[in-house]
Each structure stands twice: as structure tokens, then as C-alpha cells.
Amino acid sequence: MRPRVEEVRIQGLGVIDEAVLELSPGFNVVTGETGAGKTMVVTGLGLLFGGRADPARVRPGADKATVEGTLVVESKGRVAQQVEDVGGEVEDGELIISRTVSAEGRSRAWLGGRTVPVGTLTYLADDLVAVHGQMDQQRLLQPARQRAALDRYAGEDLVKPLRAYTQTYKRHKQVAALLEELTTKARERAQEADMLRFGLEEIEKVDPKRGEDVELRAEEERLSHADALRGAATTAHTALLGDPMDPSGDTRDVISLLGEARTAVEAVRDFDPQLAGVADRLAEAGYLISDVATDLAAYAESIEADPARLAAVQERRSILSGLVRKYAEDSAGVLAWAQAAAARLTELEGDDDRIGELTREHEELSARLGELAAELTKVRSAAAERFGAAVTEELTALAMPHARVVVQLSEAAEYGPEGVDEVELRMSAHPAAPPLPLNKGASGGELSRVMLAIEVVFAGADPVPTFVFDEVDAGVGGKAAVEIGRRLARLARTAQVIVVTHLPQVAAFADQHLVVEKAGDGSVVRSGVVTLDHDGRVRELSRMLAGLEDSELGRAHAEELLGMAAADR
Questions:
Q1: CA distances (Å), 460 to each of 154, 396, 504, in order?
Q2: What is residue 138's predicted lDDT score, i.e. its pLDDT?
Q3: What DSSP string runs through 314-370?
Q4: Whole-number pLDDT of residue 524
Q5: Mean pLDDT of 34-60
Q6: Region 26-48: what's the mean pLDDT?
Q7: 227 vs 239: CA distance, rounded Å
Q8: What pTM, to 2 d.p., does this model score?
Q9: How far is residue 66's CA from residue 397's CA, in Å, rounded to a whole number?
């Protein structure tokens, strides 16, 4: 399902007091008497899609002009995603867009219930609507749009070479960027390599071991306090077992006291089981204290004050601390840094070989890119010739028999994502005139017809779902007007078309006919929009043909036009 505009509400814009346009998916035509406000319909659509806000367009006496549009879109499509990206919502496949312009010139926009910058509406409009009016020819006048449209017109012939070119172009850019980095930053990379070598040599010279800093810290503590540790162990041993060097033998040690307690309890343990348990625990305590005393004696014997070893430990710790300060938080981190540095150094030292490989690949890709770009140019040139001839043929039927449209391809200064071609649509108004850019080679009315011819030729290849034409039939009549109506109807087979016209031959081809009516009450003019049924269309076409709604001749002619258009569709 392609997006389309379903309804537009306009308040306080120009001569329109309040109007609602209910639009069909196909060909919608808007007619009305001069001064009724037909052009305000196009102005309203322009505002809805980010057009310039002109406070002079606000209806006299009104505070602001408001335009609100309801669009039908795919709930999971690209447009819905763009709306969600700015915080708006699409509910049940319907998107609400609103725009206000105050009499003081302030403008506000809403998208899916969320206030957004007006530029957001303009960005969204690129994928939703193409406006072709006397003063507003925007989309296909952009060079990038012209190339994209030509590529779509070229069709399958361009798909495969363009895909191959795009893949080659991306790799070419990657290789060029790598070469740029390797060559322009050679000095920085050499400095980095020197720094890494210095660090690795320093670490290799020290040869740290994982966890060594923790072990050395513990050994330094032990060596620094050797006398205190030995004294404490000896004192504790004496307290537990007594001092065998004491000649008096009066030492009251823990083992002796435990022995006395055990002897006293053992003498009466048979009289009470509870006391017997205490006696067993006293025995266990004696054994445990003896073991502890033995360990204390062994520990005291093992502790020696070794100033030389202490100095060596402190020196080693100082060296390791220097590495830790430079490279990591501990010895394990220093080893991890060394491993990563070695890998990085290997990469840097291979730069020369890598530069050679990348240079060769870059040359091969450049040659391949040139071949693919030439193939793209060939396909585009053929498509451009077909396209120019088709548009020129359409212009002949649209009362521009001497006009000629050509697609000019020129070579860009450098390769781009889509090739080396710059595409520009040009037109010459008569055989002696040189082809000029579209906005310079045709007047406002002619440009609308040129755009119609282009859109008809592009029909089906152009992704824009809604086209708006204002006064596309300016300066023509008769057979040319019929041809314009026929081509608008053809365009409406693949897209929604909204046309403001004053020609009945064009209006007869519409799927839905809207008329802008005005009512005068003194100096105030109020306009509204009415959707016409068949009888209403006959009356309106009769008015457009003869100036009289009830003219029998005019009504007969109107019926004839409607019949002819229906048969043609």
C-alpha cells in the first residue's frame, strides 16, 4: 500500500473560512470560480508539508490559519518509522499532520501528535508528495533527484552494474582511508612503536612474575620485624611450657597449670559423668597447647634478621613498583600490558608490507571502479536518450510542439556512491534555443506541463505517492486540454493526483471532483469545499464551459466530456 492523503482540513487560510477536502486514491480535481480560493487548497497542502509560512495568507480577522491532514500509511513502513523516530505515532495506519500560521508570522507543526520543527515536515515530504505549481517546482529540480529518477527509469539494465559499482566503491573508500591513515600518520605510528619497544624491553629486563609483588610485600614485612616476631614467639612459648633455663623451676607455665587441673578432676571423674567430660576436654587442651608451643619454638628458630635479604627484597619491590606506576595496577596487569603491546608492535612493524598490499589493491579497485562507472554512464546515456524522446513526444501533445527535453550527463570531479555521472534535465523552448535547466527554459505554466510530461514518463518508476499540480493547464485549451486530462488520469493509475484547474476538459477525467464555493455577505467572502456527485459535476462542467450552470447546450457538452473521459479511462 502506497501512502496517500485522505483528508485535509483548512481554517482561516486566505478566503477559506473553513473547508474539508475528502480525497480519493486516484485523480482528484479542484475547480471553482475565480477568487473562490482554489489556489488556497494547494497553499494548504504546501503548508502541511513544510512550505514557507506567509502571515499575509491568514484570513483577515482570524488569529491564525490552520491546516490539518490525515494520511493513510503503512503501520510498519518507512514513513511510520520516520514518524516514530521523532516521537510521533501512527494509529491504525493513519498519520495526522498539522500546521498553524499566526497573523504575526509564528508557525508551529505537529507530526503524529508530537510538536516538531517545520523542517521535519519538509524532510518527510520528500517521500510523500511532489508539488508542481506556478511558483513551486521543487522536487525534480534537485540534481540528486534527477539522477535517482533517471536510474529508476533505466530499470533492470542498471540494477546489476550499479550494485557491483556500489560494492567496489565502498571497498575503494575503505582501502583509501586505511592508506591515508598509514601514510599520513607514519611519524605517529613510528613513535608509538618506539614507545612500545622501550616498554617491552624494560619489562623483559625486570622479568616480573604473576603475584610476585604480593609475595615480596609479605616477605618485607616479615624481615623488617624479625626481632619482634622472634621475641613474641619465644615469650609465648615460655608462657605455655616454661623456661627450661630457669634454675629455680618456679615458673608457673600453662602446661603445668593445665596438668594440675587435670589431676584434680581425674581423681573424682568416676563420680559424675559431667565432670568426666570436663577432664577429657582438659586433656585435649593440654595436647593442643603442647602442639602450639612446639610450633612457636620452630617459628622462633626460623626467624632470622637478614639485612642483606631485606635490602634485596626492598630493591626488587622498588623496581616492580616502577613498572606498576607506568603500565598497570599490579604485576599481573604489567604482564597483560606486555602481551597487548607485543601484539600491537607486530601490527605496527608490518605497516610497510601492509602499505604495499593496500596500494596494489587500491590500484586494482581504481581500475575496476573506472570500468564500472563507464558501464553506468553507458546505461544512463541510453536511458537518457529514451527518456528525452518520450518527454518531448508528450510535450507535443501538451501544446508545446517545438519544445525539446534532453538529459545532460556530465562527469563529476570525483567518483561518488552512484558513479561519476551528474544528471541534469534541460529544455529548449524551440529548435533554435539552447537547452537550459528546467527552471530557466520554461515559464511557470510551461514548467507545470513539462513536469506533467516528465512525471507521466516516470510513472511507475517514481516512488512519490502523491502529485499536486496547480494550473498545469495554464495557457492551453481544446485538444491540448484533453491530452492534459488524459495524462493526469494515466498518472493517477499508479499514484494519487490532486489538480487545481479551470478547464472542464481536464476536470472531466477526475475520479473525484471537488468544487470551491464562495458566498458573499458584504465585504466578507467565505469559501468552502464540496464533493460533487454526477449531477453536480455536470452543472460545474457546464458552468466552466458556458458560464451557465443550467445551459442545456453546456450540460450536453458536459455529459459528452464525462462520457469521453470515462471511455478513455
A1: 12, 22, 27
A2: 53
A3: HHHHHHHHHHHHHH-SSHHHHHHHHHHHHHHHHHHHTHHHHHHHHHHHHHHHHHHHH
A4: 54
A5: 84
A6: 85
A7: 18
A8: 0.63
A9: 39
